[in-house]
Amino acid sequence: MSYTETTNNSWFSRLGSSIKGILVGFLLFLLSFGLLFWNEGRTVETTKSLDEGANAVVKLTSAKLNPKYDGKLVYTTGKADTKEILTDDSFAISVNAIKLIRTVETYQWSEDVKTETTKEVGGNETTTKRYTYTKIWSKRLIDSSRFKQSSTHQNPTDVIYKNKELVASVVTLGDFQLNSSQINNISSDSLLPISKLPENLTSNAKIVNNTIYLSANKNSQTTNIGDQRVSFKVVKPTNISIIAKQIQNSFEPYKAKAGGEISLLYPGVVSADAMFKSAQKENMVLAWILRFLGFLMTTLSSSRYIATFGRYS
Asked: Which of 16, 74, 93, 183 is the most exposed place for a label (fewest CB within 10 A)?
């Protein structure tokens, strides 16, 4: 489904748009300069801090508490474990896990806008906008009140089920207890099989490929706007490797003399050397991503000026 809108822009309205374009271009230039300057400092600081950590780290043979390493940068590996049972009451799902993640998608309208501008005799411009509407599954609610044709493409403003993440409060690694940040960094999730619906959902729901489909209209056999589908992922007790500062029976980020903080956690059994090499690689990847972003912002800033003055040439 689509809708086309055509508008004529006078010389004065174009002048106002041009002034806005110049201001936006100047702001982009300032932001790009600040980003590039900050990124280079961050990259050097992180590189030096990781090099420092690689030379200072104490490699523990097991996840056993040894008070003499208190305050030191340590490396250890083992099973991140919990005894907690996480329960999603809405779907009657209980599992011994570090995380239970409910992902909910809602069937909604999506609006796509394509704009074309052509110059006319006399300095005016004609702008044509083509609005296309499609139905998609989305994890977020799409605000249809902002659509050009909102009256005929209405999305729900609220839903019964929403995304939810349950996290165990106590997760241990041998003699150590992980903090909330470290628990959140454990991301070895897997799809949780679903074989049975709770009794209160049997009339308007079905299970297809471990996904629960919920119909907004019980009598409909087709997918309609407002329908939802729900799937679950679980992070079960699993092996991890960690590098951080030992503080009694827990871990905290290690403050390097170079200025950066070191707190690394990787899934599986990974050597300390491999963890530092991986962290250095990630640092350089991030550095080049931010450099590219800064260059892109500079290019967009320049294009704003070129496009603005090109309108009057």
From this structure: 16
In 10 A of CB 299, how many CB atoms? Answer: 12
Question: Residues 10, 16, 21, 22: is their CA dihedral positive or negative?
Answer: positive
261: its two tokens: 């903080």
Q: How many CB atoms lie within 10 A of CB 15?
A: 13
pTM above 0.85, yes or no: no
The Cα-based distances of 203 to 193, 199, 233 in angstroms read: 21, 8, 24
- Separation CA 79–CA 247 (nearest Å): 19
Phi and psi, residue 291, nearest 5°: -65, -45
19-36 confidence digits (pLDDT tens):
666 677 778 778 888 999
Domain ranges of the chain: 2-310
Q: How far is CA 5 from CA 9, 111, 114, in A?
A: 13, 14, 10
CA gap 131, 5 in Å, rounded: 8
Specify the amino acid at residue 258: A
**Tokens standing for residue 182:** 């470290």
Residue 89 and residue 100 in contact, taking contact as beta carbons nearer than 8 Å: no
Closest CA to 230 of 93, 84, 86: 93
Using DSSP bridges, classify how beta strands 58-59 and 73-81 pair: parallel, antiparallel or unpaired: parallel
pLDDT at 13: 55
